[in-house]
TrEMBL record, chain A:
InterPro entries: BP-dependent_transpt_permease, MetI-like, MetI-like_sf
The protein, known as: ABC transporter permease
Assigned GO CC terms: plasma membrane
A GO BP entry: transmembrane transport
The species this protein was found in: Stappia taiwanensis
Membrane spanning stretches: 21-47, 95-117, 138-166, 259-282
From TrEMBL, chain B:
Biological source species: Stappia taiwanensis
Localization annotation: Periplasm
Protein family (similarity comment): Belongs to the bacterial solute-binding protein 5 family.
Record SUPFAM superfamilies: Periplasmic binding protein-like II
Name of the protein described by the UniProt record: ABC transporter substrate-binding protein
InterPro entries per the UniProt record, alphabetical: Peptide/Ni-bd, SBP_5, SBP_5_CS, SBP_5_dom
Range of residues in the leader sequence: 1-19
Keywords: Signal
A cellular-component GO term for this protein: outer membrane-bounded periplasmic space
Keyword Hydrolase: no
Domain Solute-binding protein family, first and last residues per copy: 65-417
Source organism phylogeny: Bacteria, Pseudomonadati, Pseudomonadota, Alphaproteobacteria, Hyphomicrobiales
Organism domain of life: Bacteria
TrEMBL record, chain C:
Species for this entry: Stappia taiwanensis
Sequence ranges assigned to domain ABC transmembrane type-1 in this UniProt record: 94-292
Topological type in the membrane: Multi-pass membrane protein
UniProt entry tagged with the keyword Cell membrane: yes
Family: Belongs to the binding-protein-dependent transport system permease family.
Membrane-crossing segments per the record: 12-31, 100-121, 133-157, 169-187, 228-253, 273-299
Keyword set includes Metal-binding: no
Main location (coarse class): membrane
Native organism taxonomy: Bacteria, Pseudomonadati, Pseudomonadota, Alphaproteobacteria, Hyphomicrobiales
Protein name stated in the entry: ABC transporter permease
Length: 296, 516, 308
């Protein structure tokens, strides 16, 4: 994660030169949202007035503040077991984000490593890795994820692994491309003759060049993973009850849409805002970093 | 404009009043239609319209009242042999006449089952019957191994509905032999003698009944009935609103107000003859001490579950008994209670150290199943039990690792043998799966309860069995769920008290339309 | 072209074999159909009888070889659940899935190409920003949220649109939109970027210098060239994203498609259906990819020549 933090000031500086006016407002909104969402997720245990699992069978399906039958303290209403929707949403957000980060990091490590190997070793190793990449691009991964979870049974471990495998191929492509580009540079030749080993070269010369494209890709993939996780949980194959995730709250609450829409609307709105924010930020980072990534 | 478009598009769908056609939106459509191999809650919806038994009952009444169906009369000719006179002029949906051979074939396919899915279903309830024999063209006999106190009851089971011999044998392979593949093919193209024939069947998706004009009894009120699977609760309710369905099944209590508040719609429901139960593995190393299982049971406030999740409409039993069982209904017996104090004490005595106890449940199969499981965890927590819900669709009742899970114990027929008796028999399903133990003493009591011809003796034996269950509990009946159907105001239909759970009965007298 | 095609087909066959094998192993190791859908309350003999009946006691190798032999001779077996040939079960569901895919692709292309071009041409004005905000929003709203909100509004409250099955064209409206939301967002952004790339190139400047009208420059030269890259993304993205949306859409709209069938087969361990379903989907995806490649090659003279 250190690389991410290091990269940011540099991106900002580079971006400052080519700043456009038009989209400023949106980006500002996105930044504010990002801070709020991250704050809400990180501080969920301290912010929320209720334990997300605490039930109150006598106060089920109570509406949010300002409506009839409002149950004191439950600002966003209660769900089908009388649990606090706001507390569950924030904890759900926390879990969704944690899963997304974990998945993205696994994808980054896995893809990065394979990309590095593919870039340095030519021949059948590279061919093999690249056909894996091709396969990964070609298969409908959500479907594969659903089948894997249906077969293996859903646990957080399996879920995180599935989310990690979801986006590795993009990192592999970026890293391999960069490694090959740099390998052709004369200074690498020099480093090589000077006796530098492949790992030293990777660390010293390849990595710094990779930081900004990887940060951008990381951000972009984050929103994909959030959507994947929500979809899986919505279908009941992701995060399992009573643990809340944004997707599973929508999934389990959808039967109550006409009578108690607040159960679904709060987590659904959070998913949309979260994905939107991450997308805008990713796009913004990409423009600033001036890296050209292939669209997913 | 859109409303108009929709109406135009739906012309192909039934218009209730005019053509007497209806569409049912069902949570599940069975994967096959064969009354013999099926005893599921999904399947039981479909058999009564399509098939007949030898003996039927008046389903409008809770009390047992037998009525002639494909048999016009029956009597014991020897202590263990019953003779049935068959109805004349009965036709199968394929046009063939029903003969004594068909009846003997139908009964023996279960009583002397060779097709594995039949073997499975036949043993636990038809085990006392040796064979059926033809006497003449309109007379058959059924021979039992021991004196049978429940002749009529067992001869009216879904599993012994009458099917056509020649048709089945001719489906695949040799035309005069009943191969396994014949039964497989039959389950996809079922033919019976009932008031509706199956005109189209897409497993798990759709079933279309059409009126069978040559039905031996009163003509069916509907021209055509289509059952489509709409798995999602929200979609089912919406389909009722848009008019895509005239009746929908499995409406959860939380959805009732939604339908009832619409002036064009209504709901009908009843506390189904079935218990949602919590089963506990007697042989799990950590649950061997009965006191732990007693505590798991005593900690659950079933009345609170009923009030909160079922609007108080479910029935919480004090023992494993139902009003349907007539003389064998024992409502005064108290086997299961809520007593958190005792639960705490028992846990302490048993030296419970806070280990995790998992509660398996499928996500959606039982109405309110997942909600109840989560609420039970809360109740367990209140007495210090560390419980965790484990959502999985696989059946885990035969897994030695299974600790606790939910299940349903339907009333397969109106007798304690048909609900408790089948599932908790010595060597029966629960014991075979390794989560329930019986000894010679239990077996003796069970045998008296099953075979005694004296009702008082059967009741006394049942009390003794319940005491065993109480002392070393393998299960807790939670409640009889209140199951509801939503429908248009114009449809007059309701579940009838004399049926086993979930039967969609569209026979004459069971369904009609306002204004017709 | 021919060796190029041949290599593709060979690769596809190897891929399919790998997929069949992985699916086979994964399903067999993960559980037993007897325990998942026939299992409730079976007596011990009953269970054994069923295991024998379904021949589940054979060794894995035996079952695997038997399955491969079956595949080669076109025999894919019977569903464990309803005992119909799996080819029938799957075929019945492929067409509804295909229909929905086609309407979704059509809607996606019809909406996102113009939007993408607009966003590229007016990238410095509010129009471009507005289009992009719409695109981002489209991507940020998951198909399940879009679907349940539409059902609530258009069916439950307004009573305008049906929610069950695929009977009439009205049934297609909501599922198509739910499937396309994310696709439209992705393809709009992609078209925009492809257009920006093309519009910045020398031959566009030449075209403008020749005095062609701007619309002609944009549509003929710009979109014409950008479409080469757009085609490639349609093939790759759409198969994947559509499959993602399909399970959700199928379950909410009771759409008799392949996605829902596969997930159910996986839950029930209906091996034959799952295996053949996966093969069918894989064949479909691989064919779409090959067709995309060919279309791409045909559209781009550089590739056509280089690979010939």
């Amino acid at each position: 994660m250190a690389s991410l933090v290091d990269a940011l000031p540099r991106l900002r500086r580079r971006g400052a030169r080519r700043k456009g006016r038009g989209a400023d407002i949106i980006q500002t909104i996105a930044l504010v949202c990002a801070v709020l969402l991250a704050g809400g997720a990180l501080l969920a245990p301290w912010l929320t007035p209720f334990d997300p699992l605490d039930q109150s069978l006598l106060a089920r399906l109570r509406p949010p503040i300002g409506f009839d039958r409002y149950s004191a303290g439950h600002l966003a209403g209660t769900d089908e077991l009388g649990r606090d929707v706001l507390s569950r949403s924030l904890h759900g957000l926390r879990l969704t984000l944690a899963l997304a980060f974990a998945g993205a990091v696994i994808g980054l490590l896995l893809g990065g490593l394979l990309g590095l190997i593919a870039g340095q070793r030519r021949g059948w190793v590279e061919d093999g890795i690249m056909s894996l990449v091709d396969m990964q691009i070609a298969i409908p991964f959500t479907l594969v994820a659903l089948l894997v979870l249906a077969l293996m049974g859903s646990s957080l471990t399996v879920l995180v692994l599935v989310l990690g495998i979801a986006g590795w191929e993009q990192y592999a492509r970026i890293v391999r491309g960069e490694v090959r580009r740099i390998a052709a540079q004369p200074y690498l030749e020099a480093a090589h003759t000077a006796g530098a080993g492949p790992f030293y070269i990777a660390w010293r010369h390849v990595l710094p060049n990779l930081v900004s494209p990887l940060v951008v890709q990381f951000t972009l993939s984050l929103s994909n993973i959030v959507i994947l996780e929500s979809t899986l949980s919505f279908l009941g194959l992701g995060v399992q009850p009573p643990q809340p995730s944004l997707g599973s709250m929508v999934g389990l609450g959808r039967d109550y849409m006409p009578t108690a829409p607040w159960i679904v609307l709060t987590p659904a709105a959070l998913i949309v805002v979260l994905t939107f924010t991450v997308q805008i930020l990713g796009d913004w980072l990409r423009d600033r970093a001036d890296v050209r990534l292939r669209e997913r | 404009m859109f409303r108009l478009l929709l109406t135009t598009a739906l012309v192909t769908l039934p218009l209730v009043a005019a053509a007497q056609e209806i569409t049912v939106g069902a949570a599940n459509v069975a994967p096959y239609i064969d009354p013999g191999r099926d005893h599921s809650n999904v399947g039981s919806q479909f058999y009564y319209n399509t098939f007949d038994t030898l003996i039927d009952r008046d389903h409008g009444k809770l009390e047992l009242e037998w009525v002639p169906a494909l048999a016009t009369s029956w009597k014991l000719v020897e202590p263990k042999v019953m003779e049935f006179k068959l109805r004349e002029g009965v036709k199968f949906h394929n046009g063939a006449d029903m003969t004594a051979d068909d009846v003997v074939f139908s009964l023996n396919r279960m009583m002397q089952a060779t097709f594995p899915p039949y073997v499975v279903r036949a043993k636990d309830r038809l085990g006392n019957f040796l064979r059926a024999e033809k006497v003449d063209d309109l007379t058959i006999r059924v021979v039992a191994e021991r004196e049978e106190p429940l002749w009529e009851t067992l001869m009216s089971l879904q599993q012994v509905m009458i099917v056509p011999e020649a048709y089945i044998k001719g489906l695949t392979g040799k035309a005069d032999v009943a191969e396994d593949s014949d039964y497989e093919a039959f389950a996809l193209a079922p033919v019976g003698t009932g008031p509706y024939k199956v005109a189209a069947f897409q497993p798990g998706e759709k079933l279309v009944w059409e009126r069978f004009d040559d039905f031996w009894g009163e003509t069916a009120p509907l021209e055509r009935a289509t059952v489509v699977q709409i798995a999602e609760t929200a979609s089912r309710v919406t389909a009722l609103k848009t008019g895509e369905a005239d009746i929908i099944t499995n409406v959860a209590p939380d959805q009732l107000s939604l339908i009832d508040s619409d002036p064009n719609l209504k709901t009908e429901g009843s506390a189904t003859a079935l218990f949602h139960v919590m089963i506990m593995n007697q042989n799990h190393p950590k649950l061997r001490d009965p006191r732990i299982r007693q505590a798991l049971s005593l900690a659950i406030d079933r009345d609170a579950l009923n009030e909160a999740l079922w609007l108080g409409k479910a029935i919480v039993p004090s023992t494993h008994t139902m009003a349907e069982m007539g003389a064998l209904h024992q409502p005064d017996l108290v086997t299961f209670e809520y007593d958190p104090e005792r639960a705490r004490k028992l846990l302490e005595e048993a030296g419970y150290d806070g280990f995790e106890i998992t509660f398996d449940t499928a996500a959606t199969y039982y109405t309110n199943g997942l909600l109840a499981a989560q609420a039970i965890m809360e109740m367990w927590g209140a007495v210090g039990i560390n419980g965790r819900v484990n959502v999985q669709d696989q059946w885990s009742g035969n897994d030695p690792e299974m600790m606790v899970r939910n299940w349903s114990n339907p009333m397969y027929f109106a007798d304690p043998f048909g609900s408790f008796g089948v599932m908790w028999a010595p060597g029966g399903p629960s014991e075979s799966e390794g989560r329930f133990n019986t000894d010679a003493d239990y077996a003796k009591k069970w045998d008296r309860f099953r075979f005694s011809t004296d009702v008082a003796d059967r009741n006394a034996a049942y009390v003794e069995l319940m005491e065993e269950i109480k002392q070393d509990p393998p299960m807790l009946p939670l409640y009889r769920p209140f199951e509801s159907w939503g429908m248009k105001q114009s449809v007059n239909w309701a579940p009838m008290p004399g049926h086993i759970p979930y039967v969609l009965d569209f026979r004459a007298g069971s369904i009609s339309f306002a204004g017709n | 072209m021919t060796p190029y095609l041949l290599r593709h087909v060979l690769k596809a066959v190897v891929t399919l074999w790998a997929i069949v094998t992985v699916t086979f192993v994964a399903t067999r190791l993960s559980g037993n159909p007897i325990d998942t859908f026939l299992g409730e309350g079976l007596t011990a003999e009953g269970r054994q009888a069923l295991i024998d009946y379904f021949q589940l006691d054979r060794s894995l190798w035996h079952q695997y070889l038997a399955y491969l032999r079956g595949v080669l001779s076109g025999e894919f077996g019977l569903s464990f659940v309803d005992r119909r040939p799996v080819t029938t079960v799957v075929a019945e569901r492929l067409w509804p899935s295909g229909q929905l895919l086609l309407t979704s692709v059509a809607l996606t292309v019809a909406v996102s190409l113009p939007l993408g071009v607009l966003a590229a041409v007016y990238r410095r004005s509010w129009i471009g920003s507005a289009v992009m905000v719409v695109a981002f929003t489209g991507y940020a709203v998951p198909s399940f949220v879009l679907a349940i909100v539409m059902v609530l509004t258009f069916s439950y409250w307004l009573n305008w649109l049906p929610v069950v099955g695929n009977g009439t064209w009205l049934h297609f409206i909501m599922p198509t939109i739910a499937m396309s939301g994310g696709l439209i967002a992705a393809l709009t952004r992609f078209t925009r970027n492809a257009m920006l790339d093309v519009l910045g190139q020398d031959f566009i400047r030449t075209a403008r210098a020749k005095g062609l009208r701007e619309t002609q420059v944009v549509l003929k030269h710009g979109l014409g060239n950008a479409s080469i890259t757009v085609i490639s993304v349609i093939g790759l993205q759409i198969a994947g994203l559509a499959a993602a949306g399909s399970v959700v859409v199928e379950s909410i709209f009771s759409w008799p498609g392949v996605g829902q069938m596969l997930v159910n087969a996986a839950i029930l361990r209906d091996y034959p259906v799952l295996q053949f379903g996966v093969i069918a989907v894989a064949v479909a995806v691989v064919s779409i990819n090959i067709l995309t490649d060919i279309a791409y090659a045909l559209a781009d003279p550089r590739i056509r020549l280089a690979r010939a």
